[in-house]
Amino acid sequence: MRRGAWILAAAVTAAVATAAVAAERLLPQQSPAAARLSVLPPGRAAALARRTGIPAAYWKVDPRTARPVRLGQPLTTGAPLFPGDPPFHWRVWTTVPKSGYLLEQITSLGTHTGTHISAPCHFHVGARCLVHLSERFFTPRPLVVLDLRSQIRRRGGNFFVGVGDLRRFESVHGRIPPGSYVVLYTGLSRFYHLGNRRRPGPDNDYFDDVPGFSGAAVDWLFQHRGILGVGADTFGPDATFDQNFEATTEATAQGGITLENMGPGLARMRAYGDWIELNGPRFATTAAQRRSGRPGFSGAQMGMTGFTTWR
């Protein structure tokens, strides 16, 4: 081997070895070590809090490096259905051996089954439908979680979460951020796997009594805190006994959304200081369909990801 070729081969070998060592030292993007490196200095977090109104506690969590938490529930044909909703059915359309790819066809599915959001037009004629929601609904948003499990054990599920409850929450944790999603964790989501089965007794199936926001509380959240939506780990933000669906009615009247069937992953989120991001289809109608009186889709299944601290 000539001297020049030997030197070139040695250089290449050294470069490959250096790259391999560097690769081994790379941190996973979402990891405790990366999260520690991405923490903002206290001064910058405080400045962001002043300029955005989102408290500094939230700026201590960077969704790019934070611990991701899968929220929501699996969508299966055994999922619990809100009374009166259509069933979920699907079939295999074609397979890899037959066509070179696998494709399924959904033959029946309501837009408000499983983990989903509801747009303003779900309850209000002429209000915005899914495709007209702005992008801010689908970017990382501050998350506020009110854990009601201990109250349910003491009081049962027939009560409203009112303005006084929200003020007490703030006295402990801090001011509810603008642009946030404020949700309830009841614990009843642990019975989602039972589907539509009903079992005698309280707190043992997905259809048992759970609390929800009062209409006045929802109005206060939108008008005085500037939130974007309310939700729950169960069918929605309304109390089971509330036949007027005050929470959904007021949230959608305010131009906000509801987040429904958010699942037991909420137990892994902190009450205050974490983030959530929604991602899913933006079903839309054609111009001809709108002219015929079909304004748009009132909701859709959504992926929901929470971002919290590594602990």
What can you tell me about this protein's structure?
The protein is of the alpha/beta class. It folds into two domains: 3-59, no CATH class; 67-308, Glucose Oxidase, domain 1 (3-Layer(bba) Sandwich). It is 29% helix and 20% strand. The protein is built from ten helices and 13 strands. The model is unreliable at 14-22 (pLDDT under 50).
Please give a handful of descriptors for the protein shown.
311 residues, Glucose Oxidase, domain 1, two-stranded antiparallel sheet, 10 helices, globular
SSE string:
HHHHEEHEEEHEHEEHEHEEHEE
Helical coverage, percent range: 25-40%
Question: Assembly state here?
Answer: single chain
Averaged pLDDT, please?
93
Largest sheet: 9 strands, mixed
CATH superfamily of the largest domain: Putative cyclase
- CATH topology call of the largest domain: Glucose Oxidase, domain 1
What is the number of independent domains?
2
Present the secondary structure layout:
Elements: H1 3-25, H2 32-38, H3 42-52, H4 56-59, E1 67-71, E2 89-94, H5 96-99, E3 103-108, E4 116-118, E5 141-147, H6 149-155, E6 160-161, H7 163-173, E7 181-185, E8 212-213, H8 215-225, E9 229-232, H9 246-253, E10 257-260, E11 272-279, H10 287-291, E12 299-301, E13 303-308
Helix pairs in contact: 8-9
Condensed summary:
The chain contains 10 helices and 13 strands. By secondary structure, it is α/β, with parallel strands linked by helices.
